[in-house]
Amino acid sequence: MRTSGCENYPASDLVREEGQLERIATERIVQGFPKTRNYILTNNDVLRRIRYVFDLKDSTVVEIFSMADFSATEEQVAAWLKKEDDDAFLKLADVEFAAFLNGFINFKRGKRDGEQPKPEARLNNNMVFQKLRIALNLKAEDILEIFELAEFRLSSHELSAFFRKPGNKNYRECKDQVLRNFLLGLQNQLRPSDKGLDSESV
User: Fold this and answer.
1) Could you give the number of structural domains in the chain?
2) Residue 39 scores a pLDDT above 60
3) Which InterPro entries does the protein's record reference (predicted)?
């Protein structure tokens, strides 16, 4: 479902080693995520980062799920937040993460009356980014300021392309690098004293 986002590395980051092109990612890895080359961003990574940035307790995460009329337990939440090499780790499915994001919108902006939107069975980075934008009620200029806090440059035209419908000629896929930097910018904005804190400390 998710892509590595390494396609966005500039040509200067490419070197020839043993006759093959290899991307040098070690100097451009975004703080707060596993420092491995070609790392693919997962639902668990994003949930873990959202929980940290907004200082959410496990019980609050359960409450957020319930605000989307989706049942989750603290035991499930604890397992979703484990690192991948932990025996207790549980993979967070797209439909589960979509339910969390729908609940997060209600949590931040107030739960609307009536039947809640059904969580999508499949997610991509554009959809995750869009749901976070809605939840935080962010305008384009707000998002660009957040990216600046992560020292990530993006034009307003490039940003708007992420929120186009997939069939639109101006639609652009949101790579992992973009979503990682957005989350990093949020961390630097909301928890500036923890700037540069890596994932092993979260």
Assistant:
1) 1
2) yes
3) YehS-like
Coarse DSSP helix, strand, coil percentages of the chain, rounded to the nearest 5 percent: 50, 5, 45
Asked, for residue 1, whether it belongs to a domain, the answer is no
* Residue-by-residue DSSP string for 141-188: HHHHHHHHHTT----HHHHHHHTS-TTSTT-----HHHHHHHHHHHHH
Q: How far is CA 163 from the centre of its chain?
A: 15
Nearest alpha carbon to residue 106 among 87, 81, 83, 131: 131
Contacts of 116 (CB under 8 A, 6+ apart): 67, 68, 69, 102, 106
CB atoms within 10 A of CB 22: 12
User: What's the CA gap between 15 and 33, in Å, rounded?
Assistant: 24
Residues in the chain: 202
Mean pLDDT, rounded, for 141-161: 97
Please state, in angstroms and rounded to a whole number, the distance separating the CA atoms of residues 62 and 15. Answer: 46
Kindly indicate the confidence band of residue 113, based on its pLDDT and cuts at 50, 70 and 90: confident
Q: Which two tokens stand for residue 2?
A: 């998710």
68: pLDDT strictly greater than 60:
yes
With contact defined as beta carbons under 8 Å apart, do 185 and 150 qualify?
A: yes
State the residue range of the domain holding 43: 6-201
Assess whether pLDDT exceeds 90 at residue 73: yes
Instruction: Tell whether 113 is covered by a domain.
Output: yes
- Residue that is written with structure tokens 């080359």 in the block: 37
